[in-house]
Structures are given as structure tokens and as C-alpha cells.
């Protein structure tokens, strides 16, 4: 976890003046049964109320999709893992600036499977997913927001899509984020039940997967690859999270 904490300090320094702008995995496998080691979340120290990581405010876990050897989808040289990280970092800092307790599970370009030395599995993919799930159990997390980029064989497919668990709070969280992102993209997409996705099946807390746009669509790809537009995407995700937390 040392590199995670070191990267966190550098991130906070480099993004200290981030502006606030106006208002977007794998199929279900058997859940790993082995116990995981303790992991220290990246968040403010004074947010802790005890050595058991109990927080005074709702805790948001940002799950940054892919990383390292796992690049995710891609198009025209743009890698999903890089888009996910850039947008997630901005969501992280925007929520922190509003006083929310936030955990982010990747602050650099590495695979979370590399940090999983507790699960006896030859599958890097299984170790990666298990590591993501484990952090949500180690810390008293209230919601999990997994950030990804989409791809389609149809180049006309575009816009954000938010997937949810078959659970009421997850649906409300997904709808809140989808509404905020639809305003940004000018779309009217509805939320989708993410039935086959591991994190939506095995994370116990309300969880959603945010597909921030389609890398296979030229307009979406240009938006997601533009740092200024990444801030606007991040703000819409943060707006949706904040709205959800204000009404549940």
C-alpha cells in the first residue's frame, strides 16, 4: 500500500486548485472465500473515529477500473485504464473538497491483482476483482462507485450508461448519477441492471458501475480524452453521488 499512499500525497498537491465546474469487469464468478489482509484507505486521518475505521460521515469507495497490464478497452490509441484513472482522481478530489470521506483504490497505473498476495489463484483477473471487493469489506463503506469507459461495435453508440444492482438503493444511486450525466451529454439514457457484473453481484453495499462514454464513438472519445471535459464528467458524477446521499 506504500505506493498508494505516496501517490495520494502527490495527487493532493498537484490538484489542490482543481476548479469546481457546473453540472456520467467481469461476469459473475464464485466469490473468493479466503480472508484478506488489512488495508489502509486513502482518506483524511481525522475522519477516523476508532482503530476499526469507523467514519463519522458516509464513506464513498471509488473503484478505478482496470490498470497496469489490464488496459481495458481501447480505440485510436486511447486506453480505458488511463481515462478511468484521470476521471476518478478528479471525482475523488471534488468530493473531498465538499468534506466527504472518500477512498480510491488506485492512484497510479498498476493492476490491483499485483497487490493481492492473499488469494491462492492463478487467475490475475480473479485476484484483481477479489482485491476490489475486499477493500469494500475492510472499511465501513457506504457506497461503491466503479468508473469505466464503454465500447460498442456500433460507432454511433454514445453517451453515459450507469449500471446498478438489483437493489433499491443501488438503483437510486445509479439514477442520480445517470440524470446528472445525461444533462452534461445531452442524452436521455436510462440506467441498466448490471446482472452479469462481478462487483454488482458480490459487493454488499449499494454499488454502481459508471460507463462514462463510448471510446468507440469519436465524439465521446474526444470528450473523455480532454482534461477540461474530464473535470466536467467528474463533476457530474460527484453531483449525482451528493444528490443521492442527500436523499437516502
Gist of the model:
The protein has helices at 2-14, 80-97, 124-138, 168-185, 198-202, 218-224, 227-247, and strands at residues 59-64, 74-75, 78-79, 101-104, 143-150, 161-164, 192-193, 207-214.
Walk me through the structure.
This protein has a six-stranded mixed beta sheet. It has helices at residues 2-14, 80-97, 124-138, 168-185, 198-202, 218-224, 227-247, and strands at residues 59-64, 74-75, 78-79, 101-104, 143-150, 161-164, 192-193, 207-214. It is 39% helix and 15% strand. The protein is built from seven helices and eight strands. Helix 2 (80-97) packs across helix 7 (227-247) and helix 4 (168-185) runs antiparallel to helix 7. Mean pLDDT is 76; it is low at 1-55 and 113-131. It is globular. It has 248 residues and is an alpha/beta fold.
How many alpha or pi helices? 7
What is the element string, with H for helices and E for strands? HEEEHEHEEHEHEHH
Integer average pLDDT: 76
Strand order in the sheet with the most strands: 4-1-5-8-6-7
The residue fraction in helices comes out at 25-40%
Structural class: alpha/beta
Distance between the termini: 32 Å
Report the C-alpha radius of gyration, rounded: 17 Å
Total count of strands: 8
Strand content: 5-15%
Poorly predicted parts: 1-55, 113-131
Largest beta sheet, briefly?
A: 6 strands, mixed
Give the overall shape. Answer: globular
